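Hi,

I'm pasting everything inline rather than attaching a file, because the server keeps stripping attachments. The sequence lines come first, and each chain or strand is labelled.
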Amino acid sequence: METILPATLNGLALISILMLVGLGMAIIFGMMGVINLAHGEFMTLGAFTLSYVQVLGGNYWVGLALAPLVGLAAGFSIESLVIRHLYTRPFETILATWGVSLIIQKILEMIFGSGMQPVFHPFEGSVVFMGVDLPAYRLFLVSFTMVVIILCVLVFRKSQFGLDLRAVIQDRDMASAMGININRTNSIAFAVGAALAALSGALVAPLVAVYAWMGVTFLSKAFFVVIVGGTGTVAGVAAGSALIGFLETFFNYTIHSSLAQALVLILAIIIFRFRPQGLVQK
Amino acid sequence: MTGNKLRNLLALFRQRPLQARDKLFLVVIGGLFLLLAVYPLWGDSYSLSVMRDVLIMSIFALSLDFLWGQTGLLSFGHSAFFGIGAYVMALLTLKAGLGSLTALVCAMAASASVALLTGYFLIYAGVRREYFAIVTLALALVGQQILLSFANVTGGDAGLIDIPFLKFGLFGAEYTFDDNLSLHFLALVSAAVVLLTLWLVLRGYYGSILKAILNNEQRALALGHNTSAHLLIAFTVSAILAGLAGALFTSTQGIVTPELIGPILATEVIVWVAVGGRGTLVGPMVGCFLVIRMRQEISSISTTLWPLVLGVFFVLVVFVAPGGLATLVRSLTGSRFFSAGKKERPWT
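And the predicted assembly:
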């Protein structure tokens, strides 16, 4: 019990972070078909926002609230400057967003330096459950993420914007003919995906090292989550992040952490071979 | 029976008669390499070492151009194979004390097997285009992470130093490539051999098969070509060449660092090919030279500036010159040389 419970909680924390990043990725990549290699940088922006707010003397909650706003703003500007012109050219999107990713990393490094940024979280204590100490912050992280994801699903399923978005995803031209402003819908969807990534960056920041290039490690994981899970469904994102998160946590406890990442990559590649459509099909 | 098989295999590389543009290509290449061969007459030792790096890196550029330019598969983490070649070479000669030639073959075999394994699962699953790019990018990222965390073997961030120079025994005599002149010719001859081999393969029948796959994989499949197998072979050959470049690079430099496997080098090699014009073989070599010179100029101002310039370049090339800089030059000057008579095509 002493190892299983904390390990499960660690696994759940990783899974929920992956779900949050993966959800943003699923909107942008799975649904809009845009391969955004700068997605990890939205996470970095979120983490840096939290860190900077705390350095200025603000508290955790202000940082956590500001992070998605910064992500939203970054998402809007990148969508209108770069992505919008490349919707029909997926391959060039890769090159352009990779360029954007390098630019954001380097600008952050020039402003804040290449060292680790300080981040704190407000949950000092731990919660005792069945005689085992569980870190309170991870409990908060998991439950907070679940609430955000449920909200997203509700917006996607029930709201007018969700309906517009689903229509644009199904058929851009037809949606446009029906009077939906597809540029506006795409731009909001991209910005929301970026905001989700920034939020997850701020949430994960107290648990990891915050560097200018931290997003890159999450980028490949987020892609695996979406590809392994199946592009375009929330259930797929959940399945993908559960699998990748579980594997990584499990391997982390049994072998070296970077070998764990290599193994996860290998397993993901093998899964491609046998289920090219992903675990959950549309 | 085996004779028949061998004949069939050789038939894959049968050549068309030389045409005017082939002769032009050979003359230009011959002139270029002749110029490079007499370069030590006036180049000082620093420029010689720069030229050597460029020549070895141009093998790396050729390896990506063979894959990306001829089959359309873009490996976004091609530095993984370069890095595997470099580290296997370094570890085998430095720690295991193997001979240069054995280590070189092992380095290439290591790159090949990684490409064969990942390529089998990806290519046969129908992973192409942007999906292929993402997964190969992950390959380079994970590779770098592994290198960094096994610091007691790989030297971690600092890498490894004092890697022995290449040493070949021939007719009982042993020759070591350790001075500027011999290293220059080692790099020059290697680059020339790789370039000519690829050129011959691509202008032969096999090149036509690859071109058919590039133009329309479904059609090539319908014509009876096992397209996945051909793509897997091309990917593996490309990885072998990248591994060769990596191994040569370490043994001429004497050091390996984790940058050799990381995403920045993977990005740079794409830039070389894009600048030179993909699918042109010579173009990427020239692109390699120009970009490395540019990096030196920019790095002498500030070392952190370079990735920023790379980033801006990537965004610009997509909007300004979607077919690579060679297309831009071609459309500005109307020159047809770099196009080798091929029709314009977009980036995939």
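The beta strands of chain B are 167-170, 173-176.

If the labels don't parse on your end, tell me and I'll reformat.
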